[in-house]
Amino acid sequence: MVFAAAPAMAEPFRIIGFGDSLMAGYQLAPGESFPEQLEKALAARGHEVTVTNAGVSGDTTSGGLSRLDWSVPDGTDLVILELGANDMLRGLSPSATEKNLEAMITRLKERGVNILLVGMYAAPNLGPDYQEAFNAIYPRLAEKHDLPLVPFFLEGVAGNAAMQLDDRMHPNAQGVALMVENVLPAVEPLVAKERTDM
Fold first, then answer.
1. Is-contact 151 143, C-beta < 8 A?
2. Which SUPFAM superfamilies does this one have (predicted)?
């Protein structure tokens, strides 16, 4: 029996969702987390991708920096960097948050890994000074390092009870679906560009 040689298959585009409980899928059923829903959405658009969930509930930018190297394996094409919400909820210094995020960005760029930066807004009860300092972190880093930016991960979800769990902080499955819809316009060109460059 003669077998025809199988055509070489391209490796799937490898994405790591690196973040906190918003990425991890806090209290969601299997298949409902952001990385899982994003992978399905990209596949439905014809992209061969894997989206690995490297979200850790409760993680801060300091924790993320300490686990970055082993959480993002060699061969990763894109990291969706989503950290800082827990820094904000704990009232940690925005300058420390920015320093940690910048260190992660620098380390990933040194490894040749593309980055999509996902931002967060400070809660109003922290006061206008903290809000102003925290909210400026993500646009400033995106501009400084020439990164694509999703300004607010919870756009359309924060403050919308229909999109949230009972804790009124974390998204439910419908909320995650909206987050995926919001992030897709930033992710899809990065996947497509990488494919055309290969």
1. no
2. SGNH hydrolase
